[in-house]
Each structure stands twice: as structure tokens, then as C-alpha cells.
Amino acid sequence: MADSSVYTGETSKIYRSNRAMSMGAVAVFAPVILIMALIASAIILGEARETGHIDPGSCLIPPGIVAVGACILWYSHHAGGTTCLILHAKRLRYESPSLTIETTWDNVEAIVGGPVAPQLRLRRKATTSMSPLLATRFPSPEYLIPLYPFDYSPHCELAQDLRRFAPHLFT
Known about the structure:
Blueprint: E1 2-4, E2 11-16, H1 19-51, H2 61-82, E3 84-87, E4 91-95, E5 99-104, E6 108-112, E7 119-122, E8 127-130, H3 132-137, E9 144-146, H4 157-165
Antiparallel strand pairs: 1-2, 2-3, 3-4, 4-5, 5-8, 6-7, 7-9
């Protein structure tokens, strides 16, 4: 979809991440969270049978597991819908809730990662902004821009736009 540019008023192409990816995380982790809460409940009930009483603090563990899990799943679902890749004639910009990467096309060196996790590798560090939590887990994300959230394949619309803006990636 074409939107007005955040750069000069010219047209940019904006790709939004695939919502199905974040829904897949929900489908996988929701049952795991519920199973963890059930196991905690079973342990607490077993202890109650043995001792004849339930510690009031331990009653908070199962709902706490569910609450923390629900927050993680909500964030995962929210992040999947707000990640985008903005292609402009002179530069590109990757935006997610915890990371923003911006660079010019001449800094894009290659498409790496194969069909499972394609990414754009950069020659030099890009301009980045990231959450402190992400910075501790991934110390140098400014050299890679992920394409997999946008269902990249060699024959998709995104690949055609990359050929137009950065033909050197395909020679």
C-alpha cells in the first residue's frame, strides 16, 4: 500500500507485518500458559491436602502466571500489527514497537538468511533507536533489517520493490 512519505512528501511504499505470525504465537503459547497455571494449582492443592491448610500467598501464583502470560501474549499480538517497513526512493525504515532502523539504499549490502529468515545486511551501522531491553539481548541490530515479518519471498511484491530501489542486491 502506498502512503504519503514521512520524508519529503513523495510517495513511499509501506509494508506491514503479517498478523498471522503474531496469532501463531498466541496459539502456541496460550495453552502453555494455561498448563503452567494448572500445574501450579495442582501443586498448591497437593500441599493443602498434606498440611491441611493453604498459604494465602500461594493462591496468587496461578492467577499471576495467567496475568503475566496474558501481558506477554498481548504485547506479542500488538507488536505484530505495528511492525512496518517503509521504502522510499532514497532510504528505507524498519519500525517496530521496540526497534527503529533507518538507512540509505547504498548501505544495503545483501539479502541474507535464506528463505526461513531473510534479512537485509548493511555495510555500516544504520541509525537506530531501540528499547533498553532489546539492547541487552541484541547488541548490534543496526546491521540487519528483517524481511521475514513481511512474508518476503524472491517473487513477492516486496522483492519487486527491492529490485527497483536496490538492484545491486540481485546481481
